[in-house]
Design a protein that fits this description.
The chain has one domain. It has a two-stranded antiparallel ribbon. A two-stranded antiparallel sheet has the order 3-4. It is built from 2 helices and 4 strands, in the order H-E-E-H-E-E. It has 64 residues and is of the alpha+beta class.
């Protein structure tokens, strides 16, 4: 694998949609959240409203 293949792979990983969330801005649009958005901690919806991404971790149901 060449360096160009590695850089191209990183581009596609950052553009992969992980989940769709609802924006807090006007219109409350469904906004796709990508790996790159999670790394930055923010996602911008179609209207330009910037939302903060917060992740919550919890145990498996069997362990609770």
């Amino acid at each position: 694998m060449s360096i160009l293949d590695y850089l191209d792979l990183r581009y596609y990983v950052n553009k992969s949609v992980v989940k769709t969330g609802r924006s807090k801005g006007p219109g409350r649009l469904d906004t796709p959240i990508t790996v790159g958005d999670i790394k930055r901690g923010t996602v911008t919806d179609e209207n330009g409203y910037e939302n903060e991404i917060v992740l919550f971790l919890r145990k498996n149901k069997a362990d609770r």
